[in-house]
Amino acid sequence: MASIAHTLTRASRKASFTFTPLRRNLTTATRTRPTASIATPIRQTGRRGYASGGSTSGGSSKIVIPLGLGLIGAAGYYAYSNDLLPPAFSGAQASGLKTGGAFTPTKDDFQRVYNDVAELLENNDYDDGSYGPVVVRLGWHASGTYDKETKTGGSNGATMRFAPESEHGANAGLKTARDLLEGVKQKHSWITYSDLWTLAAVAAIQEMGGPKIPWRPGRKDGDVSACTPDGRLPDGSKDQKHLRTIFNRMGFNDQEIVALSGAHALGRCHTDRSGFVGPWTFSPTMLTNDYYKLLLEEKWAWKKWNGPKQFEDVSTKSLMMLPTDMALIKDKEFRKHVERYAKDNDLFFKDFADVFGRLLELGVPFDKEEKFIFKATTD
Ligand code: HEM
Fold it and tell me: Where is the composition biased (Low complexity) (predicted)?
């Protein structure tokens, strides 16, 4: 069997599956943040808000300000979780909180949002040690509802804040990511949810060792009336025909479908969300082309269990593939691209950055061309 780019042997891989690989790409000399600084989002927001606020100093204000931020945050969170936030089209300029007047955020402001998101991702108590994968999935599900014919759906609007969209089966589990980002939203109240969720997905990809994803702001938050109907996101139990129907509707071709699917190098399935179980790769918090390599190089068989039909790798039985993942090697046209990406990680990164960046822009009437490339915390 051709070798997979892992340093672990198959046996040791199996035995040592509980690693926290995010650390692997974050342990460079430039990364000095101690693990102990990871706190609950709200508390961390208060602390960081104080630290970067810069306008106050002295004893008592140290107590008052975090408390004040905490109260604002708590009120905002209450409004958020009860769908009470002001609806239609709250853009960055709608909140003049930072200056008391119109506030036009700069690239540095967005980089600060990026940094705060990056700081929340690593958490040893969650899944494989990172919220990165579920944050990527939030950005993708917020965007992948786009319909190029009716020009509805897409990342503009962040309508997954509202039922019924938040309750669509495909979005099960994404509350975790939305709640995680709520502290960042309260701290940088000028940013729209729709810009925040997509920026956070970019941060997650970059922080998990993926390519730089050029990103631009300009999304506005919509209201509940802009929720998309159920059924616009792909169903993992289906085949290649379904994949083409869903992704062609967004405007993506075969090569782009395969490139986007490489995100399944990340994260895992959860029985209490999709019903499926397990990760696709041995390093679910590192973006690599391993998904394609494993698809081609491992033997896959139906998993014998009492759950939805899925595949497992024959040799370790610790990895999974959905029927839609297997469709990428069953279908001749899709398979060509799987083979290209399995051979060439740089090509995968280049194509992934391009198509993921465009996915996050679906349905957004931008008025600016300029895109930002954010510094990763490891840069
Ligand atoms: C090709 C069609 C796709 C299907 C059928 C599909 C289906 C699924 C399913 C069933 C899960 C498991 C959810 C759970 O139980 O927590 C999942 C997770 C995930 N998907 Fe996809 N997906 C597709 C495409 C994509 C794309 C295009 C991206 C991003 C570019 C993506 C990113 C992810 C990530 C990062 C996770 C892991 C989430 C976590 O660990 O919580 N998927 N997907």
Answer: 23-36
